[in-house]
Structures are given as C-alpha cells and as structure tokens.
Amino acid sequence: MTLDGQWSAGKDSKAFLALAADGTLNGSDGANRIVTTWQSDGDASAVIAPFLTTQMAAPGMKTWLGRVRRVEADGDVLAVFDQSGNRLGELIRDHGGEK
Question: Most exposed residue of 8, 15, 19, 77, measured as fewest CB within 10 angstroms of its CB?
Fold first, then answer.
C-alpha cells in the first residue's frame, strides 16, 4: 500500500494531508498550514517529523490535525495519531473525483 497522495477530512472540510513520494508533507487543519516531512514506518504507516504552525482559527477546522506525528492507512482511511499514540481522527484518500 502506498501512503503518498492526498488525504482529506471530507468534502465539507478544508483539512488535508498530502504525502509526496519524495518524503515531503503539506497540509492544513482547515486554517493553519502544515509543512514537514514523513518517513515510512512499515507497509502502511509513517512517522511525521515535528513542525511549527500558526494557531489561527476557522469554522470547520480539524484542530487535532496539527498534532499529527504518525499515520496508518487501512484502504482509503488514514488514521492520525499524536506523539503519545492516541488516535486523533481519520482522513479519507482523495481520488481526485474518482468514485
């Protein structure tokens, strides 16, 4: 399973993580930009490097996404975990309009 690609919090949210094959990660919690790197930690999981971000607020934002330190994919669902291993939430693979 490949982790690279864009994962989103749903069509009604601007929150997403985009994991590039070169190890870069870009994203947003819906208000604050996330820029860092990631490294594979197994077949369907990755460790996310620490990053700094602003602390702006916006309607519909996913504040938990700013605490991501590890992700695990199961099909089209990406589970997001914090530094302590607590499951924070889930993102869905964005197939670019494919259904």
Answer: 77
98 domain-assigned? no
Q: Would strands 87-93 and 24-28 be described as parallel, antiparallel, or unpaired?
A: unpaired
74 part of a folded domain: yes
* 68 within 8 A of 54, measured Cβ to Cβ: no
CATH number for the domain spanning 69: value is 2.40.128
pLDDT in tens, 22-81: 999 999 999 999 999 999 998 899 999 999 999 899 988 999 999 999 999 999 999 999
Overall pTM surpassing 0.85 (yes/no): yes
Q: Label residue 85 exposed, middle or buried (CB < 10 Å: 0-12, 13-18, 19+).
A: exposed
